[in-house]
Design goal:
The structure holds 3 protein chains of 3 kinds. By secondary structure, chain A is α+β, with helices and mostly antiparallel strands. Helices cover 31% and strands 25% of the residues of chain A. Chain A folds into 3 domains: 45 residues, Uridine Diphospho-n-acetylenolpyruvylglucosamine Reductase, domain 2; 110 residues, 2-Layer Sandwich (Uridine Diphospho-n-acetylenolpyruvylglucosamine Reductase, domain 3); 95 residues, CO dehydrogenase flavoprotein, C-terminal domain (Enolase-like, domain 1, 2-Layer Sandwich), CATH 3.30.390. In chain A, strands 4-5-10-6-7 form a 5-stranded antiparallel β-sheet. Chain B is globular and about 85 Å long. Chain B is α+β, with helices and mostly antiparallel strands. Chain C folds into 2 domains: 76 residues, Beta-grasp domain (Ubiquitin-like (UB roll)); 64 residues, DNA polymerase, domain 1. Chain C is built from 5 helices and 5 strands; from the N terminus they run ββαβββαααα. In chain C, α2 packs across α5. Classes of the chains: A alpha+beta, B alpha+beta, C alpha+beta. Chains in contact: A-B, A-C, B-C. The interface between B and C is large, with 61 and 60 residues.
């Protein structure tokens, strides 16, 4: 690693101010950033650790939504939303491994927007609102492509408000080495319609499968998806699967998610 | 009643206490006063000409002690290859120089070009970034078939066609052609044995120090065979005589073959420590390991089997391309030849067998032995082929195997080796009992009810372990003897230190070896300790690989212990005023046969060191004996393995539902350890079959270069295994009757897995003849698409 | 440099650390607690697992500066007060849950965290929990068995062989 200092602000305001310094970079749980620092892929002068900011940790529910502090680790989410939003809890409980879940945070995951990460699918399918240090951003406007989001420099995700669907499920088909999603599909049924978000598959990161949403909004059953398929154009091809295979998996996993959601 | 001590007892491992409490001492845990840190600047292109290296700016960076380049190694030896293969025309293999640091050209991604030695590791890394390096990129040679074509780029400029050797072995061409000409059926299969990375969990580390006063070098290194490193590095690379070079391999975190070889990094730190007169340490990162540890496997084969009208195997012919990578690693040349061709008979009495192997240089990391080394490649070809033949002929694959089993021993194969003993029917019978074949139909129905396919696959295997004897392997090109050595040092109080040439890096020698000596002497195991891994403490040793430790080094230990007993009986005879021929040793007591006269073990050992009442004119004081043991033959563990898989027809994902292994390892010293060895081998074989592979792109970039893309087996990828080693036919030529168990699991499991997947698919109506490993979900899905 | 103070295996330690010093470096180089191992650089192998305020954490993916004020447990502090192996360690020895020993410290720390959370885990729960602990030697059979045994479950019916 290149050399840098670490600061540990205790409030969002102090963190924002620290991030205003030259070459400052936010450090969430570090489960993605630290390995990339080891490879010398980043050279911050200061890392601003968000781990000591209590105001961005924790889970609360009200009015059909669950709000998760941006600094809440996956393991806590898996435990604390199990009753209010089981599909989200299950997703959180399957990210990485237990040690990664002790440190990695929902805010860090969304800000990184890895094209194979799980949380972006949950946020997009839930129509979540990403609350930052200075505004609220709808999930539909948040994800802008591979590792790219609507966040501005120095902007911190303080919380994510997930609308709680009537029914939901997330099915992840794991890439055998990294155990990230080779394809992951999150299906969420709300009173006003169904949302389907797909991660791991597209060259542009997480996306909504709108044809499936339309079909499922009329008939929330796996059968409603018969004949629907995502085209392979724009999907990723890598060591672990071709675009065509990913396109196929999207269809399979979406049906399974619908069935599991019940 | 299971034994509670000695040979055959499942003793808990004494080494576990330090490993479980964080008190193990691995190479990276060693730090010495004044130590510097080394970072290698490695090539990021697969093939190129180094046009300039400017280290001046880097030299001036903080903390830099010295920067080394290939120039510093001009006139110093390159890394040697330990086995010379002679090709089918009688010519020696091509053996291009293998420099410690690149000379003029780089030939694979990861090849070390410069080494920065600095006060801290980060300073060394900083300085490495400041080295100005210009490389003129050349076309990369990646595909083996392309490499052999005349127009291909050359990995080594004076080597057109990139051919290391073209080797032919076994029956003559006319004999094999006659067999095929008379065949009622011929089955042909083309397959790839996927390139793997051994991935012991401890990355390699090398730490060297130099004592100028005595001109003595010490290398601490993560090695399976410290004496071999001392020999190769001292004699062939750096010109340091043995008495001035100590090599220590302390606790080593797994090897699996990849820590046999002599590597550039350990030669470099030893050289550099002498140059700068300070200790130099290098610790590999996992990312570095992927591009600097020798890889394994990587064969492409066409194999054909001729059967007569009664389904007897009458001829076998193979044509293999074996990837050597950019340079010949220490034992690379022997793997596709003598460790592979000699096993092509498998468990079957095929009378005519011819093996053809072309070894090819490519711009990839060197390839060498990995758990099984040549024998998994042979087993996979043969056992996939037999399964395919069974499917083509519409016969039961177990029945076809049984019909062709070798059933009388000793058996001389057409591929040079003589199996001393075995019972392939017994292991197959045991396997069938373990896996519950009658229940398979019901299990398949259960899977189908869940929308899954279920398949059953079986295979046999034979391996040749304890590579020997020296005079034979010498004729075959080995540049080393393959004996081993042990010293049994009995102390005055009767406690014993046994210095062994084998190295334990997970195999539990510290527990199992004392069981043997304790049994022979009738004393408690706790009185015996094993010393290994330090050339200054042990007489000599060829190390641990090829499942050889107990069969070869254990035999040396037995011979040395026999010498101890012989001498101790003479002492006891003197003490009891009897004839040595009348002395019996039992339960640690020396007795005069037929009398009640006895002396205890401790009385005799004390007399040896306090020889007041002692036959000094006949025997020397002291009680210490050394033996070197050079076996008469290989040992031939064999067995039968079976696997049941479920396949998700929608995603192609394969899960292992059941796995059973029936092995014949001959006699077993510690069944708990033996079973653990099999478990570990099975996971590596299942890993090869389903998960692991190295992928290079056309430019020679390694795409599977970390655990993010190289799929290591995890706990959730494997089931509880059923293993059995009760069908034992003891080895006929070593004193313990043992055969070796370390590699069996990795050799015997890949074909069973692939055979099971193909059974599942074909039963479900998919006409799929073969899928290359790893049988990933993507590949299974593609196969089902037709 | 930042000054950090933390409790490691019950003892308070204070040190000046570089911002980029990982806990693995802090433990191994500063405190000479070399039982915590480094097996990869992509945060996957788990040989470095330690407990930070009771949570199972990869020591190679957390900075020492982030552990200021924390309670740290490492493999060196796991044995019983009299030095004997604790229940998990003893089960690993009894059931041959280790070979080369390199992944073992991380395995034991993960097993301890699992059993605190789930006192009687099923085989599937154990295998799932060990997703981030890679072992190359044992094939996992005896590790899973040892953890089941450590949790007081009868493992005699698991293919002993």
């Amino acid at each position: 690693m290149y050399s840098f200092e670490i600061v540990r602000p205790k409030s969002v305001a102090d963190a924002v101010s620290a991030l205003g310094e030259e070459e400052a970079q936010a450090l969430g749980g570090g489960q993605t950033l630290i390995p990339s620092l080891k490879q010398r892929l980043a050279a911050p002068a200061v890392l601003v650790s968000l781990a000591s900011i209590d105001e961005i940790k924790g889970v609360s529910s009200s009015g059909g939504a669950v709000t998760i502090g941006g600094g809440t680790p996956h393991g806590t989410v898996a435990r604390d939303v199990a009753a209010s939003y089981p599909a989200l809890a299950a997703l959180a409980g399957n990210i990485g491994d237990p040690a990664v879940r002790s440190r990695g945070t929902v805010g860090g995951s969304l800000a990184n927007n890895d094209p194979a990460a799980c949380y972006p699918a949950a946020a997009l399918a839930s129509g979540a609102t990403i609350v930052t240090s200075n505004r609220e951003i709808a999930a539909d406007d948040f994800f802008e492509g591979l590792f790219t989001t609507a966040l501005e420099d120095g902007e911190i995700i303080t919380a994510v408000k997930f609308r709680i669907p009537e029914k939901a499920a997330y099915i992840k088909f794991e890439q055998p080495a990294s155990r990230f999603a080779l394809v992951g599909v999150f299906v969420a049924k709300f009173a006003d319609g169904v949302r389907v978000a797909v991660t791991g598959a597209s060259e542009d990161g997480v996306f909504r499968w709108t044809e499936a949403e339309a079909a499922l909004s009329g008939d929330f059953s796996a059968a409603a998806l018969d004949g629907l398929a995502v085209g392979a154009d724009g999907l990723m091809t890598d060591l672990h699967g071709s675009a065509a295979y990913r396109a196929h998996l999207i269809g399979v996993l979406t049906k399974r998610a619908v069935t599991q959601a019940g | 009643m299971p034994k509670d001590h000695g040979i055959g007892a499942a003793q808990k491992r004494r080494e576990d206490v330090r490993f479980l409490t964080g008190a193990g001492k691995y190479t990276d845990d060693i730090n010495v006063y004044g130590q510097t840190y080394c970072h290698f600047l490695r090539s990021d292109v697969a093939h190129g000409k180094i046009t300039s290296i400017d280290t001046s700016a880097a030299e001036a960076m903080p903390g830099v002690v010295r920067i080394f380049t290939g120039k510093d190694f001009e006139g110093i030896g390159g890394l040697p290859c330990g086995w010379q293969v002679t090709d089918k025309n009688g010519d020696p293999m091509q053996e291009p120089p293998h420099p410690v640091l690149a000379q003029g050209k780089v030939r694979h991604v990861g090849e070390p070009i410069c080494a920065v030695v600095a006060e801290t590791l980060e300073q060394a890394r900083d300085a490495a970034e400041a080295i100005e390096l210009e490389i003129e990129e050349l076309p990369a040679v990646v595909d083996m078939r392309g490499a052999l074509e005349g127009g291909s780029a050359r990995v080594h400029d004076d080597l057109p066609g990139n051919l290391c050797y073209d080797w032919q072995f076994g029956s003559d061409t006319a004999t094999v052609e006659a067999a095929f000409a008379s065949a009622a059926h011929v089955t042909t299969l083309e397959l790839v044995n996927n390139r793997l990375v051994a991935n012991p969990m401890e990355p390699r580390v090398a730490l060297a120090e130099y004592a100028r006063a005595g001109d003595e070098s010490t290398l601490y290194t993560t090695s399976q065979n410290p004496h071999v490193i001392r020999l190769l590095m001292g004699a062939f690379v750096l010109g340091i005589p043995e008495h001035k070079l100590r090599v220590v391999a302390p606790d080593v975190g797994g090897g699996f073959g990849t820590k046999i070889f002599h590597y550039a990094e350990e030669a470099f730190v030893t050289f550099a420590a002498r140059q700068i007169n300070r200790p130099v340490k290098w610790t590999s990162t996992r990312s570095e390991a992927f591009m600097s540890d020798a890889h394994g496997r990587d064969h492409v084969t066409k194999i054909e089997l001729a059967l007569d009208a009664d389904n007897n195997f009458i001829g076998l012919r193979t044509d293999t391309l074996a990837n050597m990578g950019a340079y010949l690693s220490t034992f690379a040349s022997s793997v596709p030849t003598w460790l592979h061709g000699t096993l092509m008979a498998g468990n079957y009495k095929t009378p005519a067998i011819q093996v053809n192997v072309k070894a090819v240089f490519t711009n990839t990391v060197p390839v060498d032995a990995y758990r099984g080394a040549g024998r998994p490649e042979a087993t996979f070809q043969l056992e996939r082929l037999v399964d395919k033949a069974a499917r083509e002929l519409g016969v039961d694959p177990i029945k076809l195997r049984r019909q062709n089993f070798i059933d009388s021993f000793p058996y001389a194969t057409p591929v040079a080796v003589e199996y001393d003993t075995g019972n392939y029917v017994a292991t197959m019978d045991k396997l069938e009992e373990m896996i519950d074949i009658p229940g398979f139909a019901a299990r398949r129905a259960e899977s189908e009810a869940k929308g899954k396919l279920r398949g059953f696959g079986v295979n046999c295997y034979i391996e040749a372990c304890g590579i020997a004897p020296s005079n034979l392997v010498g004729q075959l090109g080995a540049r080393a003897g393959l004996y081993d050595a042990a010293t049994v040092r009995v102390n005055a109080t009767g406690s014993i230190s046994v210095m062994v040439g084998a190295h334990s890096h997970g195999q539990g020698h510290e527990t199992a070896f004392p069981q043997v000596v304790a049994d022979m002497l009738g004393i408690d195991e706790s009185m015996i300790e094993i010393v290994h891994g330090d050339t200054s403490k042990i007489p000599f040793g060829m190390g641990t690989y090829g499942s050889r430790s107990l069969a070869v080094c254990g035999s040396a230990m037995v011979r040395a212990t026999e010498k101890i007993i012989n001498k101790a009986k003479k002492i006891a005879a003197h003490l009891m005023e009897a004839s040595a021929g009348d002395i019996e040793l039992k339960d640690g007591m020396f007795t005069v046969a037929g009398t009640d006269k006895s002396v205890a073990w401790g009385d005799v050992t004390l007399a040896a060191y306090v020889p007041h009442n002692y036959p000094l004119t006949e025997i020397e004081p002291g009680l210490e004996e050394t033996a070197f043991y050079d076996p008469a033959n290989f040992t031939y563990p064999a067995g039968a393995y079976a696997c049941e898989v479920e396949v998700d027809p929608e995603t192609g994902k394969v899960t292992i539902e059941r796995f059973a292994a029936a092995d014949d390892f001959g006699n077993v010293v510690n069944p708990m350890i033996v079973e653990g060895q099999v478990h570990g081998g099975l996971a590596q074989g299942i890993g090869q079959a389903l998960l692991e592979t190295c992928v290079y792109d056309a430019d020679g970039q390694l795409l599977s270069a970390s655990y993010m893309d190289y799929a290591m087996p995890r706990a959730s990828d494997v089931p509880f295994y059923k293993v059995d080693h009760s069908c034992a036919t003891p080895c006929t030529h070593n004193p313990l009757g043992v055969k070796g168990c370390g590699e069996a699991g990795a050799i015997g499991s890949p074909p069973a897995v692939v055979n099971a997947v193909l059974d599942a698919l074909n039963h479900a109506g998919h006409d799929v003849a073969h899928i290359d490993m790893p049988v990933s979900p993507h590949r299974v899905w593609q196969a089902m698409q037709g | 440099m930042t000054k950090v103070t933390m409790t490691v295996n019950g003892k308070t330690v204070s040190k000046e650390v570089r911002g980029n010093m990982l806990m693995t470096e802090f433990l191994r180089d500063e405190l000479h607690l070399t039982g915590t191992h480094v097996g990869c650089d992509t945060s996957q192998c788990g040989a470095c697992n330690i407990h930070v305020n009771g949570a199972n954490v990869k020591g190679c993916t957390i900075f020492a500066a982030e552990c200021d004020g924390a309670e740290i447990a490492t493999i060196e502090g796991q044995a019983n007060a009299d030095g004997s192996l604790n229940v998990i360690q003893q089960a690993f020895q009894d059931h041959h849950g280790l070979q080369c020993g390199f992944c073992t410290p991380g395995m034991v720390m993960s097993a301890a965290a699992l059993l605190k959370e789930t006192p009687k885990p099923t085989e599937a729960e154990i295998r799932h929990y060990l997703e981030g602990n890679i072992c190359r030697c044992t094939g996992y059979h005896n590790i899973v068995k040892a953890i089941m045994a450590a949790s007081g479950q009868d493992v005699s019916s698991i293919a002993a062989e």
